[in-house]
Write a structure and sequence with these properties.
heterodimer, A: about 250 residues, Alpha-Beta Plaits, four-stranded mixed beta sheet, two-stranded antiparallel ribbon, elongated, B: about 375 residues, mainly alpha, 15 helices, about 75% helix
């Protein structure tokens, strides 16, 4: 083939431009993602309530955590640096660092608190992701695409709750029993709680809610008239780091 | 022109072989990372960015600093910079490549990097950073190569080069501003959540980049028979002096706001960095080394006699370069993650493999720069 430098460069530039054409078209034609605000709940909005008075996390109960982690093939790497966790417990002061004062009721202060992805209405992780590998569904679930994630970990830097874990190595050898019903992950991608979207699709409650023996975890649609709406609107509750404007959708009943 | 890369003396080939050895070691280390994953690094769930992203940030600054030569030359007709102009532009080319490579080695799934282009996401600052860095790389290749080609043919550079240079000035500011926005837009990390981050980045870039340029020009004078001219070096040294002073001033502004307001979260990160937190002192020796080097450099650069003396000037420039590499590298990235959002302190120490990969990327940049500068030297020697 006969080709001088100039025509080679021309072809190369044209080729590069062609690569960007489809994404550019997608960008224009796609409807912009609905940005929900924290107003009156209309339509479907999934949320969770955690009743701190009913939860027995501090008393050695890990039923919900065990159910979640075995259901989702969460590995046990065996060191805290590479730890992967979707649902876990922390001290009251760690979960609510702005709410700690010496007059907070003692039993509350000493509580262990369950933490997980808050499935924020205004999720910073979704805002920063350069490939839309994490995105917010219409019903509010913040999803992860393990096949699109490039592993840049920008979402981990952006999450104010430390809810995201990274696969520093191949997790598969560290999974005790693999659940064939849910994908395992490859190394180099980020993962987190998905509100059990795979179970919801089958009409089931999230694994943690189902596993809880004290009824401390409640999950559902947050619109007027639902059980969850009545519970959250009638009882004093806190959300983690509400001041950041992320509109977390896990409500802690006090 | 390009054939010049095969013509060089003993020093040249020694330098090339040294760099190739480092690159080989880096590639070997990277293969380990490729096979095992980022578990070979010292990174963790809590400190999820480290040495790679620190170096990325630092070298974006070095790349942007080419404007400190381009602005005086093209906008203020500073004729003394004619001989070092191409040096600055080629330094920007190498620094750009280094910065982009550091992003690549930091990815958990590097084979998927083109997802950034396949699914363009204007809401993500990383998307914009990739765009502006690529264009800036291209701009500097054009600026440097076209100017050199004109020298080679012993004609004046084409007229369209000046508009390109002016675009590159705006672009240089944009690459470092966008890089600062990666951090400054995160409500989750109060250490970075400051509008002063972009100006701080620019100020420290305009100190570290020109300092490196002075060192390179001096090395070329000593071993390559290139004379940048004392006057031009002194001008660049003055730029370094102003920029390092402004950098320190900006840092003190941050420290005032954080410690006078006593907002606990903001304060905890600076406490960890400067004094250690809950008996964790990982960065304390580093940051004070950085402060000491910056102070020493300011003294050497402000006093005219030590600024004009080539030995003390070289020392001052090395001090500036190392000081800012610490301040804007590990000193900027790591405290953003310590303490973690849940109040945990997980310290970070780079591993040997991570360090080898980092040195390999540096050497890659060094190799690119050496080859480009060899071409410059070859053209200029032929013209004599």
């Amino acid at each position: 083939m006969n080709m001088d430098r100039r025509s080679f460069l021309k072809l190369a530039v044209l080729g590069l431009l062609a690569l960007t054409a489809r994404p550019a078209l997608d960008l224009i034609s796609k409807p912009s993602a609905a940005r929900a605000l924290d107003g009156p709940f209309s339509g479907k909005r999934l949320a969770m309530a955690i009743d701190l008075n009913a939860c027995t996390a501090g008393e050695g109960c890990i039923d919900c955590i065990a159910a979640c982690h075995s259901m989702h093939n969460v590995p046990d790497i065996g060191n805290t640096k590479e730890e992967i966790k979707w649902l876990w417990e922390v001290n009251y002061g760690q979960a609510f660092d702005d709410q700690e004062n010496r007059f907070v009721k003692e039993p509350l202060q000493d509580r262990r608190v369950l933490v997980l992805c808050n499935h924020c209405d205004n999720p910073p992780c979704v805002r920063v992701c350069p490939t839309q590998a994490t995105w917010k569904r219409e019903d509010g679930i913040v999803m992860m695409d393990y096949h699109r994630c490039i592993g840049c970990r920008y979402c981990m830097a952006a999450c104010p709750y430390g809810s995201r874990s990274f696969n520093w190595r191949d997790p598969r050898p560290y999974i005790r029993t693999i659940n064939e019903g849910y994908p395992t992950r490859t190394r180099g991608v980020v993962e987190k709680c998905n509100f059990c979207e795979e179970r919801l699709a089958d009409g089931l409650q999230p694994a943690c809610v189902e596993a809880c023996r004290t009824g401390a975890l409640k999950f559902g649609d947050l619109k007027p008239g639902t059980e969850l709406y009545d519970l959250i609107s009638s009882q004093f509750n806190l959300r983690r780091k509400g001041e950041l404007g992320t509109q977390p959708q896990v409500y802690y009943l006090m | 022109m390009i054939e010049n890369i095969f013509r060089g003396g003993k020093t040249y080939w020694l330098l090339i072989s040294g760099l190739l050895v480092l690159i080989a070691a880096g590639v070997a280390a990277y293969l380990q990372q490729w096979n095992i994953g980022l578990a070979v690094t010292g990174l963790s769930r809590d400190v999820s960015w480290g040495l790679y992203i620190a170096n990325f940030t630092f070298f974006v600054g070095v790349a942007a600093s080419a404007v400190m030569i381009v602005i005086p030359y093209y906008l203020h007709n500073t004729k003394e910079f004619r001989r070092i102009l191409i040096l600055g532009e080629f330094m920007a080319v190498a620094a750009c490549l280094v910065a982009i490579t550091f992003i690549l080695v930091d990815l958990g799934q590097p084979s998927r990097v083109f997802n950034i282009i396949l699914y363009p996401t204007p809401g993500s600052v990383i998307f914009w950073d990739v765009v502006v860095l690529s264009v800036y790389l291209l701009l500097n290749i054009i600026l440097g190569w076209v100017a050199l080609d004109a020298e080679y043919k012993e004609v004046a550079p084409p007229d369209w080069l000046k508009p390109v240079a002016i675009v590159s000035i705006v672009w240089a500011v944009s690459i470092h501003t966008v890089t600062a926005f990666i951090y400054a837009g995160l409500a989750a990390r109060s250490f970075w959540l400051t509008a002063l981050l972009a100006p701080r980045f620019l100020a420290s870039a305009f100190a570290s980049g020109p300092a490196l340029l002075i060192l390179i020009a001096m090395a070329m004078k000593k071993w390559g028979g290139f004379d940048p001219g004392d006057q031009s070096l002194d001008k660049v040294a003055k730029i370094v002096a102003y920029a390092i002073i402004i950098t320190i001033f900006f840092l003190l502004l941050e420290i005032f706001t954080v410690f006078y307001s006593q907002e606990p979260d903001a304060m905890s990160h600076f406490q960890y960095l400067l004094f250690g937190l809950n008996s964790h002192y990982g960065l304390v020796p580093w940051v004070w080394t950085s402060v000491a080097l910056a102070c020493a450099a300011i003294i050497l650069l402000v006093i005219p006699s030590s600024r004009k003396n080539h030995l003390t000037l070289a020392l001052a420039c090395a001090a500036v370069f190392i000081s800012i590499w610490i301040d804007k590298g590990l000193g900027l990235i790591v405290p953003g993650f310590i303490p973690s959002p849940l109040g945990n302190i997980t310290e970070y120490t780079p591993t040997l493999l991570e360090t080898l990969i980092t040195l390999g990327v540096w050497a890659m940049g060094g190799l690119v720069l050496t080859l480009l500068l060899r071409v410059v030297m070859g053209v200029r020697q032929a013209n004599k």
